[in-house]
Amino acid sequence: MNLSEKNIEALREIISGEGLRVAVLSHSNPDGDALGSSIAWKMALRRLGHHVEAIVPNAFPYYLEWIPEVKDVIIYRDEAERAEKILGEADVIFCLDFHTLSRLDSLGDVVAANTSAKRVLVDHHLNPSETFDVMFSYPEASSTSYLVYCLIEQLWGVESITRYQAEALYVGMMTDTGNFSFSTLTPHLFRSVANLAETGIDIPRLYNNVYNSFTEGRARLFGYVINRKMKLLRKGTVAHLSLTEEEMRRFWFQQGDNEGFVNYPLTIKKMRMSAIFTEHHDFIRVSLRSRGRVDVNLFAQRYFGGGGHKNAAGGKSFVSMAETIKHFEKSVEEFAAEGLL
User: How many DSSP H helices and E strands does the chain contain?
Assistant: First the structure.
C-alpha cells in the first residue's frame, strides 16, 4: 500500500528534530495489533535519537507478555503519574489503532490537555472523530501494524526493520486478520509478511505464543460459553453469547481469556452475525462479528454507540445483561426488517 506522499513528507518534518519527546498511544484493552504496532513504531523512532514511550490505558492479555519490549509499555492504570508527566511534556503524540480519544477511557482527557504537541494518527478504523496534524487513516488496511510497516517501508526502507520489530509487526498483522483469513488481504500484505520473514522470525513460534498459550480456565470457560450460553436467532443465522462477572470468576478469568469467542459461531455454515456481551464493573462490552455484506459497524453505531469495521465492531451497554440481550434481539429484528441482515 502506498501511503500519501504529502503526509509522509509532513511526518518527516515532524520527526526531523533532535531528541524529541514522543508518546505512542494505543486503545484500552490493547490487543496484538495495538501492542505490535506501538512497539515497532517506538523502536523506529528511538533509533532516530528521540525519547519515546509507549502507553496504553490498561493491562494487556497474558499471552502477549512475550512480545519484545512489551514489559516497557506503560500501563496508565498502574502508573498514572508517570504517564501524565510523559504526555504533558510530549512534543509529538502518535495515536495508533484508534480513531477517537474515547477509546483511551480516562487517558483521553490527559491527551486532550496537551494542546501544544503535534498529533499523528495511524489507524484503520472508519471515520476518525478527532483533529490531527497528520492522518494516516486507511480503513481498507488489514491492521495498524501493516500501516506501520508501510510507514517504515516508505520512510527508511524494509531493510531497516529489525527482527524484534518484525516479530511485533507480524503479531499485529496475524491477530487482526484472524491468522490471515479475513477479507482485507492483499498481495502487498503477503509481500510484507515475506519481508518480515526475511529477518529470521520464527513464525510457528509466534503463532504458538499467541494461540496455544492459554490457561486451563480459559479452555473450560470456552466450553461453558459455547455449550451453555450460545443462543441462535433467526433460524441459526445470528448468535449471541454472554459472560457475567460471576461466571468469569468461576473460571479464574484473566484479561484476554474471552478473546476469539465471538468468532466461533461464524464457523457454523449459515451464520451471518455473532455477538458476545461481557460484563464489566459499570458497563457491558459488546463485540460483534459478521460475514459477507452484513455491516456490524453500522449495527454497532446505531444500537450500541460504537463502531469499528464492516465485519468486526463493538460498543457498550449501560443497562443490565438481561436488558442488553433483549435490546440486541430487538435490534436484530429491526436490522433484518430493513434487509441489512
Answer: 12, 12
- Distance separating alpha carbons of residues 21 and 17, to the nearest angstrom: 10
pLDDT on residue 308: 87
Q: What is the pLDDT of residue 136?
A: 97
Note the pLDDT of residue 130: 77
Element spanning 317, H or E: strand 312-317
Phi and psi at residue 137, to the nearest 5°: -110, 110
Q: 86, 113 in Cβ contact below 8 A?
A: no
Sole residue written with cell 438481561: 322
Answer yes or no: are the C-beta atoms of 69 and 164 closer than 8 Å: yes
Rounded to a whole number of angstroms, the distance between the first and last alpha carbons of the chain is 31
Distance CA 321, CA 236 (A): 22
Cα–Cα distance, 42 to 2 (Å, whole number): 21
> Rounded to whole angstroms, how far apart are CA atoms 83 and 109?
12
AA identity, residue 103:
R
- β-pair type (118-123, 92-96): parallel
- Tell me the per-residue pLDDT of 192-219, one tens digit each, with 9 for 90 and over: 999 999 999 999 999 999 999 999 999 9
Question: How many CB atoms sit inside 10 A of residue 85's CB?
Answer: 12
The proportion of the chain whose per-residue pLDDT surpasses 90, expressed as a percent, equals 90
